[in-house]
Design a protein that fits this description.
Blueprint (H helix, E strand, L loop, with lengths): L11 H11 L3 E2 L11 H12 L12 H15 L9 E4 L2 H12 L5 E6 L5 H7 L3 E6 L9 H7 L4 E7 L11 H14 L2 E5 L19 H4 L2 E6 H4 L8 E4 L2 H14 L5 H10 L4 H4 L1 H16 L5 E2 L7 E5 L8 H12 L1 E2 L1 E2 L12 E5 L4 H11 L3
Parallel strand pairs: 1-11, 3-4, 3-5, 5-6, 6-7
Antiparallel strand pairs: 2-8, 7-8, 9-10, 10-13, 12-13
Helix pairs in contact: 2-11, 3-11, 4-10, 13-15
The structure holds glutamine.
GO molecular function: kynurenine-oxoglutarate transaminase activity; pyridoxal phosphate binding
InterPro entries: Aminotransferase_I/II_large, Kynurenine-oxoglutarate_AT, PyrdxlP-dep_Trfase, PyrdxlP-dep_Trfase_major, PyrdxlP-dep_Trfase_small
Pfam families: Aminotran_1_2
Length: 378
């Protein structure tokens, strides 16, 4: 058989989590919390099961959950989204992204992807016959060079992929970025795929500029979200996609034959949980405290933090430690010091290595303390 992804190996998250397990290291690599979700969330899901919500959900998701999401969007971004035609519940954010690409990318279509890029984007485009057009973010600010973007537009450019807050760098799009994007999308009739799974994890009073807030962008966009990331339940694989009705109609044609529908009791539970806005309004402060605590603990190590405006990832430079490659360093620190992290070169197709590694701070205080204690010895 001819491989559709000849150059793809095992995802770095699986590799580093396995290495962490093998060496009994503290796992700050793959992005997931080491603390449990809110008890209320478990109770409402259990209640839904007891009430007999155990058969197929409707293909786009149960209406109470779609209505709760529309309400949350109205509260967060002052935009009215139609729960009937513009929201589809998905098994996680990664699936939501894949399905958007599968919906609209034809063989030969070019898709603009900024690097470092979350590791599923390029394979998702390739498997659908698209052509990834890779554009590096500036270093070390990790911002979009719009001049460079304009120079990469061709008659085949179909879509531009965004991720804000950004994994792995923690950068966020600004109003100025949005203005540039608006011009570009209008001038070349592009589609936008905006991965906003960390929408509530924005710090220091910063604002999340969701594509949902800009009607002239939204009319060409798929915007993807994750309950796993924001409600500390990554193992549930629950997310959703929002798109205008004409795009969502096509999206659902693909979705119905990929997984048909998503598990029912979790949907009822999440609908109930979203009735309390505090459950998502409390998130920025909750995670900012963790980021600040981690930075404070790391202050007397030889790692140098880069700014983290959002997400639950903290990048660190290590030029005061060694000049080895970032992959070698992360493996060595896992084996010798017992803390796993992610080399940022894994987010570049050509392995560009700026000697930066990523730590996930979605962890209990005690975990962060123990990790920093070990990292002080590096
Ligand atoms: N999004 C998570 C991360 O960046 C990983 C999810 C996964 O392993 N697929 O670490």
């Amino acid at each position: 058989m001819i491989s559709k992804l000849p150059n793809v190996g095992t995802t770095i998250f699986t590799v580093m989590s396995a290495l962490a397990a093998e060496h009994k290291a503290i796992n700050l690599s793959q992005g997931f919390p080491d603390f449990d979700c809110d008890d209320t969330l478990k109770e409402v899901v259990n209640a839904a099961m007891q009430q007999g919500h155990n058969q197929y959900a409707p293909m786009p998701g149960i209406m109470p959950l779609r209505e709760a999401i529309a309400k949350k969007i109205y509260n967060s971004y002052a935009q009215t989204i139609n729960p009937d035609t513009e929201i589809t519940i998905t098994p996680g954010g990664t699936y939501a992204i894949f399905t958007a690409i599968a919906t609209c990318i034809q063989p030969g279509d070019e898709v603009i992807i900024f690097e470092p890029a979350y590791d599923s984007y390029i394979p998702n485009v390739l498997v659908n016959g698209g052509v990834p057009v890779l554009i590096p973010l500036t270093f070390p600010e990790y911002r979009i060079n719009w001049e460079l973007v304009r120079s990469k537009i061709t008659s085949r450019t179909r879509m531009i992929m965004l991720n804000t807050p950004h994994n792995p760098t923690g950068s966020i799009l600004t109003e100025a970025d949005i203005r540039e994007l608006e011009q570009l999308v209008a001038a070349h009739n592009l589609l936008v795929l905006s991965d906003e799974v960390y929408e509530h994890l924005v710090y220091d009073g910063g604002q999340h500029h969701s594509i949902l807030k800009y009607p002239n962008l939204f009319k060409n966009s798929f915007v993807t979200f994750s309950f796993g990331k924001v409600f500390h339940v990554t193992g549930w694989k629950m997310g959703y996609c929002i798109a205008p009705a004409h795009l969502m109609k096509e999206y659902r044609k693909v979705h119905q034959y990929l997984c048909f529908s998503v598990n029912t009791p979790m949907q009822y539970g999440l609908a109930k949980f979203l009735e309390t806005p505090e459950h998502y309004l409390s998130l920025p402060a909750f995670y900012q405290e963790k980021r600040d605590y981690f930075l404070q603990l790391m202050a007397d190590t030889k790692f140098t933090p880069l700014p983290c405006y959002g997400s639950y990832f903290q990048l660190m430079r290590y030029d005061r430690i060694s000049d080895e490659g970032d992959k070698d360093l992360t493996i060595r620190i896992t084996k010798e010091f017992g803390v796993a992290s992610i080399p940022v070169s894994a987010f570049y197709q050509d392995g560009q290595d700026d000697h930066v590694i990523r730590f996930c701070f979605a962890k209990k205080k005690a975990t962060l303390e123990q990790a920093a204690e070990r990292l002080r010895k590096v």
